Amino acid sequence: MTMFDFISDTPSNSTAVRHKRNHLKKKIVHRMNSSGPQTIPLLSRELKISMPSVDRLIKELIADAFVEDMGEGPSEGGRKPHQYKIKSRACYSLCLDISISDVRMALIDFNNEIHHPIKTHIKKLEDNQAYAEWLVSIIELFILESAVPFSKISGISVALPGLIDPDKKISRSYFTELEPNLWDFLHNKLNKDVLIDNDARLMTRGEHVFGLAAGKNDVLCINVGAGLGMGMILNGQLYRGNTGSAAEFGHTKGTNSLIPCYCGQEGCLETIVSGPAMEKSAMEILSTEDVSVIQKTTAAGNKNFYEGILEFAQQGHASCKKIIQDTGHELGLGISTLIILLNPEMIIIGGCFAGTGDLIINPIKQAMHSIPVQKFAEGTEIVTSQLGHQAVLLGAHVSLIQHLFKDVM
Ligand SMILES: [Zn+2]
User: Fold this and answer.
1) Distance between terminal CA atoms of the chain?
2) What's the CA gap between 357 and 387, in Å, rounded?
3) Which domains does the chain have, with CATH numbers?
């Protein structure tokens, strides 16, 4: 039996006694996933299961190699109880972050740890079946290379740009022609549960559980990469809107832009604040020689050209810094409106700007000084993500965990 077998056990495919036991084990595993190592007295108290029952269930989970004994933990006012955690690599989520210009993949175990190197493919997103077939092939190859048994993968959670209604399995921006839809296409090819959601929303979920937004109630997460996305935590909850298209920040109007956007409008903020927009500026202001050096560096490092511009800016290249400052200025003007509307406690700038700190934060703040937003912005912290690209993948993992454990949450 795999861990996924008892997690997916239902009353209809099990005896009543076995189902009840599996349900209790599932509660224990979920508690360990969300709160870390547990003791038998703590599990008994929190889950309202008798100590002898918890003891017996833990022994069964250890015998099946799903849980491990970490030895004695801190004293709870008597004998030091043993602590138990989910066994490393016992069960995984396969998480994909598909952007307009690349695909990242990670295998994340139920201790929320990424064990195998994140795999990146630089390839332009194509809205057709051949691209979907290619996705299946790289997923199969990734699993093969990781040497993780297929039976240990509990499901596939995918982050995709654009308008997505995950409950109705509708992607309004990409794979619109795929029959019946991307969810069922991947499920039929790979025989695993498939979840798909908007990439910025999943980034926000990742930041809320593992990143700087943890414990906060009102946070905006801005994902800059091949596009410009945003997710919102409002009153402690991920906000989706009526049809799941809330927070399409990239498709609000930018200042002084008449550039056509793929969404059909012109002058969207994404046309001036995104990786491709930075690349366009680079082609206009950098020397041919500089462009060539950056292109060689990014090709060797399996990165996007805009990531190279950022790296050069961080190393002090004046023209590349100018591109980031201009981008930050436009982003800051957009953020000013968000602050006036939503009064968030924190704004996290992620994607390619993760970890860049003052390089992007300073021009954002300077843009905000130029308009009377200061009194609204008091108390709003603007920071760059510490999780970087992992935020989307971890958010996809959280989404799958919540789906698998929804009956015990
Ligand atoms: Zn647009």
Assistant:
1) 23
2) 13
3) 3-86 (1.10.10.10), 92-203 (3.30.420.40), 212-386 (3.30.420.40)
Distance from the alpha carbon of residue 394 to the mean position of ligand 1, in angstroms: 27
Give the C-alpha separation, 255 to 103, whole Å. 31
**How many helices and strands in the chain, by DSSP H and E?**
14, 15
Angle between helices 275-285 and 288-300 (to 10 degrees): 140
Residue 248 CA, ligand 1 centroid: distance in Å: 9
Encode pLDDT of 320-361 as tens digits.
Answer: 999 999 999 999 999 999 998 999 999 999 999 998 999 999
Q: How far is CA 316 from CA 175, 311, 313, 320, 324, in A?
A: 40, 9, 5, 8, 11
Surrounding residues of ion ligand 1, Cβ less than 5 A: 251, 261, 263, 265, 268
Regarding beta strands 219-224 and 346-351, do their DSSP bridges make them parallel or antiparallel, or are they unpaired?
parallel
**With contact defined as beta carbons under 8 Å apart, do 259 and 272 qualify?**
yes
Give me the residue label for tokens 């833990």. Answer: 58
Contact 166, 195 (CB under 8 A): yes
**3-class secondary structure, 56:** helix
pTM: 0.92
* Span 368-390, pLDDT tens digits: 886 667 777 788 999 999 999 89
